[in-house]
Amino acid sequence: MSVVFTDPAQPLSLLSIEKSLDSAPVGGAIVPPSILEEVATSESAMKRFETLRYVFYGGAALSDDAGRAISDKTHLCSQIGSTECVVFATHLTDKSDWDYLCFGSDWSGYEFRPSDLPGIYEMILVRDDDKADFQAVFWGNSLTEFATGDLYSKHANKPDHWKHEGRLDDVIVFSNGEKLNPIMNEKLIASHALVKSCMYVGNRRPQPAVILEMEGGNASRPPSSEIVEAVWPLVEQANKGSPRYSQVQKSHVIITDASKPFLRTAKGGLKRAQTAQLFDPEIRELYNNTAVQASILVPPCDIKDRQGLQDFVLSAYREATGNGPLHLDQDIFQLGADSSSIQPSISHLKACIFSLDINIDTSSITPRAVYANPTPRSMVEFLGGLLQPQDSSATTPVDRKKELQEVYVRYHVQLPAARWSTRQAVGARSTVLLTGSTGNLGSYLLDVLLKRDDVEEVICLNRNKNAAENQVRSNSDKGLRADFNNQSVKFVHADLSQPQFGLDLSTYDYISSRTDIILHNQWPVNFSLSLASFEPQLQGMLNLIHFAAQAARRPKFCFVSSIGAVNNWRHQLSLRNAVHQVPEQHFTDLCLASHGYGESKAIASHLLYHATLQCRLRGLTIRLGQLAGPADSDHGTWNKTEWLPSLVMTSHELGALPQTIPLLTEVDWIPADRAAQVISELLFNTPMTRADSGPGKSAIFNLANPRTVSWATLVPTIRSHLGNSCTVVSFREWLDLLEKMGRDERSKDASARLPALKLLDFFREMQEGHDRGAQQTLLSMESSMDASPSLARLGAVDGSMMARWLRQWGLPSRTTAFSTVGSEKARL
Fold it and tell me: What's the pTM value of the predicted model, to 2 decimals?
């Protein structure tokens, strides 16, 4: 075999490739993607490529158009390698899979572990001495595994086939902690004839921007405004396929000057970090002028009278919900708004006040203010109070109790009347109606139910239309059963807040005729929302009670509640001389709940309790404490956006770890997989919920870890992963450090690096509660342990569990970690 090289004295180009192909009978070629893009548009080059048996490429992404065109002419193959690992061993793929790599999992030791991005996995090399010939990264060291930083997605139906989706370095982490892999969007936008390359930016910013590198020189290009208009349809197309938090606004487009091109590798790949640094002045100017831009984009407004204020708030809130119809009393969070989508609305509200030079403090117009005023009408009242301040006192406990009672009564009066019909005969195996199966706990619940011999079928009601697909992804990520192509599982798209769950009559009748057990687990976990934003969930609870009361088999009803429903128990001790642990019993005092989330759970539990009495149902409420990551699986993870992962990862950046945590005298966290097993046992082992039990029965169980440890026992394990340079400080010192970083001008957009900044109010409340003498809410679990053998033998959280969660958060022990920062990656 002969090897033909292009002339080393000449720069690599399409012309030099064509000359090399003409110089000898070449059977295959290795060509960088930048040249292949030119090949795809050259008729003469395409004719030459028809004579080749194979063409290999790597080092950067290849556009879909170029890839498809070339793969029609020859066998196009992708390849990858890195400085540390050399070339990765792969099998030859079919012609149609030109953009996939087929890794030999049987002889390579490659593992693909779920990343924080849905459907995206990171390649990990796991040391195996029997596969040493394919694991150059482990030569001469004692590493046990190596994280490549390369991201992949699975082939739809071919095992071991993976598409390279970029690198962890490519992923943009916004200030709210959400993530975006921009590669596909960049390729789409760059397909415009005017655009040479596109790059998303926005790390540690609230929203993304795009930088467009244009074809040709400055003299031949139209004005920037015309370029934006010309390219905008492709940006909109990219936005449609992206979550709202990652959508680009027209004000966030930067057009490069011809004298300042993107920085690239020798193979034409984009040097992302270096290019972002090159354009740092333009990026800073764009984000620093956000308020000014917002005031320009906001239509003329006069908010000095109520009608003008009302119209403007409606306009701002419509933007947060996608510009659809909106009336004054609609809750924008029920319409899909979230922490990301409300940011432009907040900017516009502030900008309008700024543009009118109204002398009021806009610092109170924050996400918290929007969460507390989720309807346009309530925001009008809030802003009206700022414009015309009046003396007012804070909400009193009497006011809060009255408000909670009024909400409860509104739903209680709609409970169905008692029904005395005979219950249809029930078989030996049950059909379970499960809500929220695609969530974290829901995935484990589904897996546990499907393993039970006494469960015949699980019907999953989910809000998402793609629930089956999401379930496969969620369970695969957690290492759970993901084959649902049988009759034991049915996925039904439903809206619990609608009559008959929004289902057609035949589907509703089918579910109603078969359900033996209702396991209601669907509830948004968001401690920022007010009680008003949980109205759809309360309506859904009421609809499920009506369903249970009318269903043929009079199903038993299990509701997964929360410790938040009784979080003020210790605060109320002086009023009732009660025991320190919350008993497993029903409480009539709704003020025991904290925040809108806990209040909604308390009202829902209240409704179920009274439904068992009034409607002769068999009910079970489980108050669930803090869920943790999986107990002994390397798959799945404790969600990084929750308070404990955020605290630990922020401590890594601060170089300081709290020695104690307020309101956490005992670590009673329960791993999510263990919690699902316990719930299953409570559901099937409890006498008042067995099929042979009579109506009108109810039970209350508490669920946390009955065996506890102190936070101090976990600190050494955490420190071993954060490094010896991480000092142990008091929680107040840690909070002061965090607040200082938040105030620091250089760190004002550092929420991605310091995720605890997003929960700053939460951590402040912990410290303030401690200062007031508040104590941790602890749950009594005697009845739960009697009914659940798994709970009775559950061990406390220990160092090995903590170490596993730390690794899953990307914090390997410093004694075995191998840093890839600064190492050059190359797709060969």
Answer: 0.61
